[in-house]
Amino acid sequence: MEDQHDTVSGSLADDLHRGDRCPSTFDRWRCGLPAHHVGPHRSCEASQRAEWNDRASGRRLRDLARPAEHAERAARAVSDPS
Question: Is-contact 44 32, C-beta < 8 A?
């Protein structure tokens, strides 16, 4: 089996020492809370802060953004339920 490197830290060794921390990542952030915590994931590093839920775990920020035409289509569907 091929070793997979963490996309946030870039180091497999760093991951092995984080067994007591939550493994959730979102885009470039890694949750800094204890493993098996309750509630949203949270990363606080220097001047950056991010929070995300389980649905966003393992995803990239750009993957969650919807293009404008999709947002317009969704708005029309709500206003015209026919």
Answer: yes
> What token pair was written down for 62?
């750009």
Name the β-bridge partners of 34.
21
pLDDT digits (tens, 9 = 90+) for 15-73: 445 578 999 999 989 999 999 999 999 998 878 889 999 988 998 887 777 666 667 77
CA distance 47 to 62: 21
- Provide the token pair at 32: 């800094």
Predicted local distance difference test score (pLDDT) of residue 76: 78
Alpha-carbon torsion, ordered 37, 31, 48, 44, to 10 deg? 50
Residues in the chain: 82
Is the separation of the CB atoms in 42 and 7 below 8 Å?
A: no
Amino acid at residue number 32: G
At residue 53, what is the residue type?
A: N
